[in-house]
Specification:
The chain is mostly helical. It contains 22 helices and no strands. Helix 2 packs antiparallel against helix 19 and helix 3 runs parallel beside helix 6.
Amino acid sequence: MPASPPGDERRKRRLALIGGSLGNLVEWYDWFVYASFAIYFADSFFPGDNPTTQLMNTAGIFAVGFLMRPVGGWILGRAADRHGRKSALTLTVTMMSVAALLIAVAPTYGQAGYFGALVLLLARLLQGMSIGGEYAASATYLTEASARNRRGLGSSFQYVSMTCGQLLGLGILITLQHTLTTAQLESWGWRIPFLIGALFAVVVFWLRRRLQETDAFKEESSAPGEDAHDDSTRGTLKALWQYRRQAGLVMALTLGGTVAYYTYTTYLTKYLVGSAGMEKTTATLVSFTALTLFAVLQPFAGMLSDRIGRRPLLITFAVGCTVGTYPIMTALGSASSYWSALGLSLLALVIITGYTSINAAVKAELFPTRVRALGVALPYAIANALFGGTAEYVALWFKNSGHEKMFFWYVSGCALISLVTYVLMPDTRNAALSRAEAEADGETGPERPAAAPAEAAR
């Protein structure tokens, strides 16, 4: 494949990048806005005098949403491998729109007792299913739609859009904080971002219906003769079992990254308010500024991985997170100003960029087309359900038990496990994702795409 595709091909890839990223932005806006506004609606569903206990209840529902991610990863990953990346992306945003609307209209404890909490729980379960498929579908789509020598750059936009979704939620939070009183936010203002999310999802549904399918999937689904796979096994657990070692790699390389990411994003505002004693508005502004710069870093790190490989960035992240979490979190816990908190937050997010900017490409490059979406979705979703979704709850549990700093060691331990994985795994930068790329390498056969890194992982 030439380094610079023709003009039409470049435009096609640019549109695919925009379409996939904007849809991903709205998906993750709806997902993260729950965590951003939890400090205002926690007591609406869980009455009591202990703010930490109320946040633990809302964090528990946040974590339960992660338990549905493996289910969504399996169902929607299978759909993406069998019916196309485009159809799966359209379905995920539909599910997210319904879930956001449910949260927006959920009755409070004062209106319907714990029925409101039940509606909240059901909405989070639906969101969990949606996100479980969204991650894999968008990771696969963005990676496959990118030129081979720019897959790191292309896949980096997954976390750009994820972070922009969170920034949009934080931006709305900051706006509401300056236009509504605290009493109004706690009474009804917290519903506004969920209504906005539902409307955004409708727009993205229309956008995703106009996306083109990736060449890799069209090639796989129309493969003639001896190159054709049994269509009944495409995207199935039976097919994925052939790549169980790669699936194990996805879980292990995700472990440290997902715990660190949720620690320094969704949990950061609560930590600055509850442990550092910072005002809610100041803590929110710290998160907003740090995440803005974090989003800007992603494409640069993605481009760097296209030049030097994926493993150097992953190893840098894991080493930095293993040795840096305790001192950074300890310093954040005593940060007394906006600037000190911002500097420490940025340091942590720069370290995490080594993982976030390229993890989508790494996972997609481990699997062949016929099982790529499911191979990314299911093990990633399991790792997130066990570790990413519970990070905030574990942090609050340690805080409530009087041993808050034990959580810092927990994050470091997870990063250490991933570090061992990064050191031992192959670099996936040169993996062929389609038969056309395999043929360009002088390789043939239906299993050649992604075969080199897959075999090295055994």
